[in-house]
Amino acid sequence: MNIRALRWCGILLVVLPLLVSCDAAPDAPQTSAGVATAQKKTYQDLVVGFSQIGAESEWRTANTRSIQETAQRLGVELKFADAQQQQENQIKAIRSFIAQRVDVIGVSPVLETGWDTVFAEAKKAGIPLILVDRGASVPDDLFSAFIGSDFVQEGQRACAEMARLLNGQGNIIELEGTVGSTPQIDRRAGFEQCLKDYPGMHVTVRQSGDFIRARGKEVMKTILREYGRQFNALFAQNDDMALGAIEALEEEGLKPGVDIKIVSIDAERAAFEAMIAGKLNVTIECSPLLGPQFFETALKLANGEPIEKWVKSNESIFRQDNATLELPKRQY
Ligand code: GYE
Predict the structure, then answer these.
(1) How high is the pLDDT of residue 151?
(2) CATH no. for residue 186?
(3) What share of the chain is helix, strand, coil (3-state, %, to 5)?
(4) What distance in angstroms lies between residue 42's CA and the mean position of ligand 1's atoms?
């Protein structure tokens, strides 16, 4: 079962109690009956390996900061590896964490497929693995938990906002994220599901900008040159691509937010600034601040305590009318 399937079951996973090795036994505290019990680990005892995707967006930078700052605050020893968008680098990092016998591995998979072998290696080594932010299409027993957002819901929310902005009528450009990544697949699926309720709205062009601002601008320029001005709206799967596309629209003499309605996802500070300037209409929140939930789950796993299989983020929708009020509160 993959992450998408998890939405249907709020099951609690009870992990096996920690195995106490023979050399640990002499230090273990004794119960009144004289039976040795495992010493509970604290954050200071934890060694965690984390394989990050890279630094493609403001969102990602904020996510990295959240993981690193939380580790430091809690006193967790963090081994952090930046994969620079390459899945093979992530696989290497996971193998090196296994070789170093870390307590828990965290990974934000750049793509959804291709993880079975390396995740099985972690499982065989007895190291719990947590998916952070993005999912992986692997059997359910190859990871312990997923921490992150409901991307399908984000796509649905984006479409519902678009319908409101367009009164249910219009041609939409969709700028997609990294092809084959969970947020790309699920945001598109959610948007498409909801489009069925609005027969007057159509996605007429769909292209990937890899979640990168500069690519968003480049792709938008090409689309405008190729197809002219036959669009009413843009759905960008993240804020960074929307911000790049806004520059392209302005350079082509169009008024983003007015001539072309724009909805994007993430809710980073720059998106609020664009909404205040009237250039972006709506941003759907997707929180990168996953550090606290990640280490809390890691500690529970290391202690053999029950955890939730999907630790879901709680998120909102922000529009131009509340942007000024919200901007000072934003943490990323
Ligand atoms: O929306 C985008 C980032 O995986 C949810 O990745 C994340 C996405 C986020 O690059 O900005």
Answers:
(1) 98
(2) 3.40.50.2300
(3) 45, 20, 35
(4) 31
